[in-house]
Amino acid sequence: MLSINNLHVNVEEKPILKGLSLEVKPGEVHAIMGPNGSGKSTTGHVLTGREGYDVTSGGVSFLGKDLLALPIEERAREGLFLAFQYPVEIPGVSNMEFLKASVDALRSHQGLDSLDAVTFMKKAREACKAVKLDQAFLKRGVNEGFSGGEKKRNEIMQMMLLQPKLAILDETDSGLDIDALQVVAEGVNSLRSDDRAFIVITHYQRLLNYIEPDFVHVLVDGKVVKSGDRTLALELEEKGYGWIESEVA
Amino acid sequence: MSQDEIGKLIQQDYSAGFVTEIEAETLPPGLNEEVITYISKKKNEPEWMLQWRLKAFAAWKEMHEPEWAHVKYPKINFQDISYYSAPKSLEDKPKSLDEVDPELIDTYNKLGIPLHEQEVLAGVAVDAVFDSVSVATTFREKLKEAGVIFCSISEAVHEYPELVQKYLGSVVPQKDNFYAALNSAVFSDGSFVYIPKGVRSPMELSTYFRINESKTGQFERTLIIADEGSYVSYLEGCTAPMRDENQLHAAVVELVALDNAQIKYSTVQNWYPGDKEGKGGIYNFVTKRGVANKNARISWTQVETGSAVTWKYPSCILKGDNSVGEFYSVALTNNFQQADTGTKMIHLGKNTKSTIISKGISAGKSSNAYRGLVRMNPRAEGARNFTQCDSLLIGSSCGAHTFPYIESKNPSAIIEHEATTSKVSDEQLHLCLQRGIDAEKAVSMIVNGFCKEVFKELPMEFAVEAGKLLEVSLEGAVG
Amino acid sequence: MGQTQNLFTCKANSICDGNWRLPTRKNESWRYTSVQLLEKANYLAQPFGPTRESVEPSIYTIPKLDAFQLVFVDGQLNAALSQLTQLNNEKGVIASLFSEANKNLQQIIRSAVNSCVDLSKHPFALLNNNQTQEGVYVAIEKGVRLEKPIQVVNLTTERESEYGVAPRLFVDLAKHAEATIIEHFLSIDEEQNAFVNGLTELQLAEGSRLNYYRLNFEDGASRHIAGVHANLEDSAYLNCFCMSLGGSLKRFDVNTNFNGAAAHCELNGIYLPRGNQHIDFHTCVEHAVPRCSSEQNFRGIVADSARAVFNGRIHIHEKAPHTSAHMNNRNLLTSNKAEVDTKPELEIYTDDVQCSHGATVAQLDSEAIAYLQSRGIELSQARRMLSFGFINQLIENLDHQAMTEYLRPVTTEFFK
């Protein structure tokens, strides 16, 4: 589904990713872990097409297409979803209006008609319910005045509504209490299926207690230095990143 | 997408820019006593009206163009403008719509303002003003049943002279300012509304202004009187053809809200803004003011997307105790447009309240200024004002300015003023794009969200139109 | 004296031509402050006769503040009360009167004066150039941090006839220099017939830091119109605090020009006019370059028949992305005859900015008063406490504890 091949990325002329490679197949859940500044969030941003990330070499193919050649919105329409680490506020634009525009854009890409208002609302309410977000949030401005936890749940709610093929969760666990963490994890787990994949970017293994990954990759200095299964995450938790860094060095 | 590219997305052609080919009677350019006498004669006005005009003209000759606004344009030669133009077919006043030149009806149809009653938006009566004259006023009979008078001001001078004499110039005196004096001397038409005591107007009233002839100015005059305890909601819309020259529009609107009355006045201003290089467009120099008596309420709502230069401050004189003034404004400028707009809230009575919500959006190389005055007079015990002035900038070459004047002479009065400036941020756009929404839609959503507080004050039909208008005006602002 | 004027000869031509006129209220920046009364006053007259020599230092001394004091009486330095020589002897410091500058320094002063001020926009700055008899030049050399504050005291007395004084101060901080300057204005006689027209220029080179305090406490019929103009180069930092009490007319223009990127300024001020007093603050921050930030907080309490004017302007040029500029002005009116006119302006020519301003005019919060009363506090005392608190928020956060401790009782006393 997703194939990252020896990817090099600069941010403000400074190399951040230095040869990242990763294969993600449908149905898999990959966790990317690593110390601060190792390039975790950069990976998410460069995959979605955010500005300011210069790919100097390497490539990414997504469902057989050259992902890096597609504009941001096309990537989204192809089924790529990023749950942001810091979801931005858009004052005055209601969540509902925003989501309807998004859902319609994705459907139109698939050659489907826009959803009628009633059906859309039904789906939106279900998604809210699934992440225990009050329906009143649909009427509020996008992330406007939401608490940190509410913003994160709002991201997962959107994911459930948009049903992406590949979802990237960028440190969705940061700043969440255990209850909110469980809600997020339940949302993700309910979407797990044979044709959908996840990349979970996290600093701590805590989230992985709830979302069981098939693979764990450790990113250090812009490269995957170690891959393994769940046990690798537990080992990291116990020994800290220093262990890997010294092992690699 | 970079911020710079955003600017490129706001480009679309002005859809109301067509010219109606119609035979018109147009005065040659120039302004003197003879021209004023001609206009007055043409309208068969009584002597008092002519004298009123001449007095205004005498005052105007002594006055100077205001220069304090944050706008720049070449000096206007007032002798180069024609002060009267009317379609020939309206020479003999058509008795009904069936007698009106189909070209004219068609013009309004194209603008989305059908004049045939069976086709119009339910519940909205329209007075259509074409260049210097009123074409038709719909639903007059139905309104008459309720006692509501809605007609062109020319007719009102003949049919309701006592009301016109009593109130014309009572809110905006002839000598109020340069453009008001000019308007007082040469105004050719406009709307007149009277709502009798205790009556709630059964429908929305609206005037649609259209400038068609080249080299003409439009000087309309609107007078709305809401008698004690009455209510009226009034809307105005304006468009003009695309021409390379600048045309002058200098209107005066006077609102009188007697005790316990309420007037809601909404404007969607879409005069031709000029082209992408800043050529042509309307100079929109307008004086709008209302007096609110005891417990009365006056609300101004405006969506300003057109005109090359806008100079306009719809104001409220809160004369009566407990009266309320409101100003809700969205002003969007793009390309080389310039706007200097805002309001004045003059608190004279006790416990008077005012609210000002102003949303300015600047794109391209345009300049957008809010200018407002809040004055608490010594007698205004317990008066309150709240002002929120927000600017949204799109692109790095535009200007957004805020000039609020706050004057208080009463310790029990409370004034709160807040202003913020923001831009459509990269993060906001990125979030929308990542959810598959294209950039144009995203910007228009963000801008509409920014204006939401004002749009909710507009009557339903207008709110939709206003939203669309913003989309059109912003087209090309993002790339 | 003649020498001081020589420093300005070419700069004040338009006054010499006789073109200078008092600004009228038609001039937008004098809209709310009339200076026409000056027309009748003999405000240009030089002080005539001998200058008082014995002055009690306790009048102007700020307790607990160890400072170099430069004391002027009616525009003339009182050398006995001043430590100009000590200041000049300090390592990395040059301090001199304009009139005593040697040839070399004269050259420096000549090119420095008026470099921070736009004379075309400030008629009284122009007038100062024409009238000034004396000035102080202080330069701090590269990387030098002057621990001890410099307190420039300007005292005015009652004289036989009306007179004008035009004090002048130029502070020149080299790269990474640091200093604290206090300009302190006081009247020492109850009756006043002085017109003070001050001009202060602050030149802050790259990375330099200046704490500038301006205390205008002249009382009686005194009139004071002055300008403080600062140029900030890269990463410079200016912390400016102004407090103004008393006198019949006070008008201050505080202008900050950002000439170098990533500089920061704080402009804070307090005005407390009462009786028939009139106090006007005009601030202007010119954001002409990228990444600078400015914060302004001005508060006033206007009593009796007094009038306060605040006009704060933030001007962000097209070439100033990543600017952050915030301004807040809060006013309390405590009488039916008092008036406040405030105009917080924004003029913005680029989109990548964070800007806001807020202004309020109100009276003391009636709920807060009621709350204090419910605890047994008398109404008048509750008012005093709340008024003090409103002002004290700005005084408490001063960089110098000694200044806070000096100003707190001044404020308490004021509300008694």
General description of the model:
Chain A contains nine helices and twelve strands. With 249 residues, chain A is an alpha/beta fold. Chain A has a single domain (2-248), classed as P-loop containing nucleotide triphosphate hydrolases (Rossmann fold), CATH 3.40.50. A six-stranded mixed β-sheet of chain A has the order 6-9-10-3-11-12, with helices on both faces. In chain A, strands 2-1-4-5 form a four-stranded antiparallel β-sheet. In chain A, strands 7-8 form a two-stranded antiparallel ribbon. In chain A, strand 1 (2-11) and strand 2 form a beta hairpin. In chain A, helix 4 crosses helix 6 (148-162) and helix 6 (148-162) packs parallel to helix 7. In chain B, the strands form three sheets. In chain B, strands 5, 6, 8, 10, 11, 13, 15, 16, 18, 20 and 22 form an eleven-stranded mixed β-sheet that branches. A ten-stranded mixed β-sheet of chain C has the order 2-1-5-8-10-12-14-16-18-20. In chain C, strands 3, 4, 6, 7, 9, 11, 13, 15, 17 and 19 form a ten-stranded mixed β-sheet that branches. Classes of the chains: A alpha/beta (249), B alpha/beta (479), C alpha/beta (416). Chains in contact: A-B, B-C. At the A-B interface, helix 2, strand 7, helix 3 and strand 8 of A face helix 9 and helix 10 of B.
Name the features:
heterotrimer; A: 249 residues; alpha/beta; Rossmann fold; 4-stranded antiparallel beta sheet; 9 helices; 12 strands; 38% helix; globular; C: 416 residues; 10-stranded mixed beta sheet; 20 strands; 39% strand
CATH topology of chain A: Rossmann fold
* Average pLDDT figure of chain A: 89
Please describe the biggest sheet of chain A, giving its number of strands, its sense, and whether it closes into a barrel.
6 strands, mixed
What is the top-level CATH class of chain A?
Alpha Beta
Shape of chain A: globular
What is the average per-residue confidence, as pLDDT of chain B, rounded to a whole number? 86
Number of helices of chain A: 9
Terminal-residue CA separation of chain A: 32 Å
The CATH homologous superfamily of chain A is named P-loop containing nucleotide triphosphate hydrolases
Elements of chain A, N to C (H/E)? EEEHEEHEEHHHEHEHEEEHH
Share of β-strand residues of chain B: 25-35%
| Quaternary | heterotrimer
Structural class of chain A: alpha/beta
Strand segment count of chain A: 12
Termini gap of chain B: 7 Å
What is the helix content of chain B? 10-25%
Helix content of chain A: 25-40%
Strand element count of chain B? 23
> Which overall shape of chain B is indicated by the principal axes computed on the Cα atoms?
globular
For the record, the count of structural domains of chain A works out to 1
Beta strand % of chain A = 25-35%
